[in-house]
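User: Show me a protein chain along with its predicted structure.
Assistant: Here is one chain, sequence first, then structure tokens.
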Amino acid sequence: MKILSKEEVEKIASSFDFDGKLTFTDMIDFEPDCKIYKLDNETEDNFILICRDYQFDDTDAEERILNNELGITILDRLKCNDSYFLRTNEFDRFEYVFSLARTA
């Protein structure tokens, strides 16, 4: 799984239903199939863009794992059109699945 550039992360994040600009701040190479990109906005609210190579539907389990292992508390998830997931094949030979969450 490719590690995305600042520009690529911000472009993907801007696809979600959010009023404002999200700016990339840091990246966590969490697992071979999961990269976490930290972002914030102009009011310094915190967000994470979760990138996987599959759709992780058990969001409660994901929230527990991120909290227990990384200390990240998800407050809410943002939609991309009518879904909580954005899929793209533009970065690699397989599909990348993104979700965006506001964090504490």
